């Protein structure tokens, strides 16, 4: 599958382009940048074509699919343009700024018969399938609570796109979205109601951290926290009536050589499981396979729409100080 990359964002340079090079299912043939960096990045990664306009990637007949790691507020525009150009789309999370945008993107992608997938890469690490296996086997009894945390230190926020309120900045959009997605993914359930409080920056007008209580449709509770003001934390814990399962490297196991870490605690006994999996490569492979097979990818339209609706509800709760139905 021949890919074009729309933007020279860090996530593309450091994670997705290398992952595509590790995959035998993908080939990066072009990259575009509006800042004039495309040729330098193309030279660095051995990419044959460099463009100074995103439109040129979409017009290239050699390209089958595009990866879009643009700022959040540009996702909808370029997803729709890519779909109209007949390119399959792997788009960074969050899919858009709200659920309505996701619905509009879905309609255009379906109209032009292209595959779309929101790039929540973490879900493709095999440690999460192991968690689901343990839950299904009754290892910890009935699940009553899931706690998820994703935060990191943003030491020099000024000028960082993550705190630009005009471009979809804020900790819930950036890292809290992973926690909300985890509740859906691990529990195979939708979010029904949220109550969220946040530390809103007077300077930037975005949430620098947030803490939320989530009620799933099944009645299981979720608790999450996200933020730009702590050391790196990327973990979740599934709490059951007879034990717990903790995933201590939930979202960035690539920082540990791709090694996942699942900890089962039951009846005073702790068991550690180490699981190797290249989540970015697995993501690329799955996306290509979905295109080849003509099926909807694992991270479906419904999951993306539900996650965006949950994010919408979180921000509405922060604004109103009340519980909000999704």
Q: What's the end-to-end separation, in Å? A: 37 Å
Strand content: 25-35%
CATH topology of the largest domain: Dihydrodipicolinate Reductase, domain 2
The tally of structural domains comes to 2
Shape field: globular
The total of helices stands at 9
Radius of gyration: 19 Å
Detail the poorly predicted runs.
none
CATH homologous superfamily designation of the largest domain = Dihydrodipicolinate Reductase, domain 2
Helix content: 25-40%
Largest sheet: 9 strands, mixed
What is the CATH architecture assignment of the largest domain?
2-Layer Sandwich
Cross-sheet strand order for the largest sheet: 14-13-12-11-7-10-9-8-15
Number of strands: 15
Strand/helix succession:
EHEHEHEHEHEHEHEEEEEEEHHE
Question: Regarding CATH, which class of the largest domain?
Answer: Alpha Beta
The computed structural class is alpha/beta
What's the overall average pLDDT, rounded?
A: 97
Keywords: Oxidoreductase
Domain GFO/IDH/MocA-like oxidoreductase: 129-245
Family: Belongs to the Gfo/Idh/MocA family.
Protein name: Dehydrogenase
């Amino acid at each position: 599958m021949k890919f074009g990359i729309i933007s020279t964002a860090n996530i593309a340079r450091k994670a997705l382009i290398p992952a595509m090079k590790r995959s035998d299912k993908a080939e990066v043939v072009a990259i575009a940048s509006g800042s004039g960096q495309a040729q330098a990045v193309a030279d660095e990664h051995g990419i044959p074509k460099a463009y100074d306009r995103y439109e040129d990637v979409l017009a290239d007949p050699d390209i089958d699919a595009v990866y879009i790691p643009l700022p959040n507020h540009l996702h909808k525009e370029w997803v729709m343009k890519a779909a109209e150009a007949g390119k399959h789309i792997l788009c960074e999370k969050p899919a858009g700024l709200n659920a309505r945008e996701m619905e509009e993107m879905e309609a255009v992608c379906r109209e032009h018969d292209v595959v779309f997938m929101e790039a929540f890469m973490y879900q493709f690490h095999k440690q999460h399938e192991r968690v689901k296996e343990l839950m299904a086997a009754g290892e910890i009894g009935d699940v009553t609570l899931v706690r998820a945390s994703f935060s990191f230190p943003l030491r020099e926020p000024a000028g960082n796109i993550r705190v630009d309120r005009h471009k979809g900045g804020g900790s819930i959009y950036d890292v809290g979205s992973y926690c909300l997605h985890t509740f859906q993914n691990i529990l195979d359930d939708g979010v029904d109601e949220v109550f969220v409080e946040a530390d809103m920056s007077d300077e930037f007008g975005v949430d620098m951290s947030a803490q939320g209580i989530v009620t799933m449709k099944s009645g299981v509770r979720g608790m999450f926290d996200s933020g730009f003001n702590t050391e790196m934390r990327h973990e979740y814990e599934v709490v059951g009536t007879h034990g717990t399962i903790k995933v201590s490297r939930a979202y960035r196991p690539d920082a540990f050589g791709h090694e996942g870490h699942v900890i089962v605690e039951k009846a005073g006994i702790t068991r550690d499981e180490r699981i190797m999996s290249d989540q970015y490569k697995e993501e690329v492979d799955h996306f290509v396979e979905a295109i080849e097979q003509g099926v909807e990818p694992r991270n479906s339209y419904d999951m993306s729409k539900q996650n965006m609706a949950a994010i919408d509800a979180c921000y509405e709760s922060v604004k109103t100080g009340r519980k909000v139905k999704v």
